[in-house]
């Protein structure tokens, strides 16, 4: 799985992990957060590689099913993109007018982004 797909899977996991079984959660966590291969996860959990693969695929399907219905990750990406556009525009305005109130707004938005 490409790194970009792992990031997306991680985001889906953050939104929808409560819909997974404990085993599925553990497998996704080891795969995404610990960057283990399916073979390494198999050894870690003491189950066959095929068992890990099947559980991983089912978990991935569950996460994607909920995303298809609820669109939380999609909204998240759109919101991040919109916020970045607003910040770029505010920075251009600040560069033109050097208004400290605008810089304060920029800083507030950036601080909020870091805490989301």
UniProtKB/TrEMBL annotation:
InterPro entries: RNA_pol_sigma_r3/r4-like, UPF0122, UPF0122_fam_protein, WH-like_DNA-bd_sf. It comes from the Bacteria. PANTHER family: UPF0122 PROTEIN CBO2450/CLC_2298, UPF0122 PROTEIN YLXM. Belongs to the UPF0122 family. NCBIfam families: YlxM. Might take part in the signal recognition particle (SRP) pathway. This is inferred from the conservation of its genetic proximity to ftsY/ffh. May be a regulatory protein. This is UPF0122 protein Calow_0750. It comes from Caldicellulosiruptor owensensis (strain ATCC 700167 / DSM 13100 / OL). The lineage of its organism: Bacteria, Bacillati, Bacillota, Bacillota incertae sedis, Caldicellulosiruptorales.
């Amino acid at each position: 799985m490409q790194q970009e797909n792992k990031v997306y899977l991680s985001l889906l996991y953050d939104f929808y992990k409560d819909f997974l079984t404990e085993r599925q959660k553990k497998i996704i966590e080891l795969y995404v957060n610990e960057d283990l291969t399916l073979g390494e996860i198999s050894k870690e959990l003491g189950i066959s590689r095929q068992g890990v693969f099947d559980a991983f695929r089912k978990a991935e399907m569950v996460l994607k099913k909920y995303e298809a219905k609820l669109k939380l990750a999609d909204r998240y990406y759109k919101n991040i993109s919109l916020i970045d556009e607003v910040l770029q525009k505010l920075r251009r305005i600040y560069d033109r007018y050097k208004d400290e109130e605008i810089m304060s707004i920029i800083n507030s938005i950036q601080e909020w982004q870091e805490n989301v």
